[in-house]
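Structure tokens please, single chain.
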Amino acid sequence: MRKSLLLSAAAIMTISSPINAQDADDVDALRAQVAELTAQLEALSARLDEVEDTSSAHAVPAPAPAVAAAPSVTADNATQISMGAAPEVESDDGFSFKPFGRLMLDAGWTALPDGLGLSDGFDAEIRRARLGVSGDIPGGFAYKMEVDFAGNEVTITDALIEYGAGDFDIMVGQFNNFQSMEELTSSRFTSFIERAAFTDAFGFTRRAGVAVEYGGDNLLVQGGIFADNFEDMPGSDRWSVDGRAAFFPEVGDTQLHFGGSLHYAEIGEGETVRYRQRPLVHFTSNRLINTGNLPATSEFGAGLEFAAINGPFHVAAEGYRQKLSGLPTMQNATFHGGFVEAGIFLTPGDSRGYSGGRFNRTRPANPVGEGGIGAVQLNVRYDYLELNDADAGIIGGTQNGFLASLIWTTTDHTRFQINYGKLDYSDAAIALPSGDRDYSADAIGMRAEFDF
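Here you go.
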């Protein structure tokens, strides 16, 4: 195309000269000149073709766009941006920045006995709507900050700085203190939409403190000193010491987990504690077992953990004992909670994730969008919570939960689930009109969620 245009332009320019005023000899001479010029242009074009062919043979192919070639972009040879579920920015001098978040939408029904005078039926809520950032700081430091926007308010969940030195990590800020594998497993990876009843009833939550953690190949030891949650500070005199150890060997194709935790807290002068629990789902405000406010001075808790994963199967069990001291009756009060569960994946190739002393993300072998249907998991659980101590004069009630969940994990970062719970109560905190405190309730919970 380029050669043809070049020759045509030269010819047109030459022929366009004013030749009508010339005689025949001049015209013949001009035609000869045009023929000679055309031959020269053709020779020059052929030479250009040889040069282009030689350059093409030794040319370096142009790089493909960064997104297509690799999941990273390098700017100024110092900053790298990688793309996974969310972008992560890393610099050569050790800084990194990564946003993360989750959204959990819950809906369902509760069915309570007639005569309790409590609302039930359908309800829904945004259970969690969290955004956060995490990353590294030069010198072996790391940071994490997360806030939750659910419930029409903004609350701080995690806010911490961490320093790593070999197998040891030192953490300062607000984070989960070390009670229960169930509590420390992220809500993104739990087998039911709510954790075991005792974890909520006994007040397991994030608190401000300083902690040290040792992590070996299959051993984890954690311990720290904690104050209260940021929401309750200042003004709270509560403080606690918490520790946990977990041993998680692999035996053949089976991942095992053995763990235990200890907790001691000074409640604070003039403060009280209250243990209570909802029937399975969070979107109801009804607590059918409840100790009421107890003016204790301290609490001591001890828990045991066990879990095993083999292919599509898993089992888990925990038990926890909480003792209150300093009650006006001069009698210590002791309460108990725990659960045992089993689960199986109905889709081939899928297994429950596990890492570092807690359950982790399930990654479907055949996710939706890649020719598969995702991972389908069925779980059953017996959940027990006892808030009675007759010797101390406390009758808060006992809850026996018979639970089942069906979880559809469509991709690594999206899942849907439905839970059913049959809750049997004895000595419930709220009585029927007849005075009877032994009855049952039903709950169905559904959740749609994603995280990045």
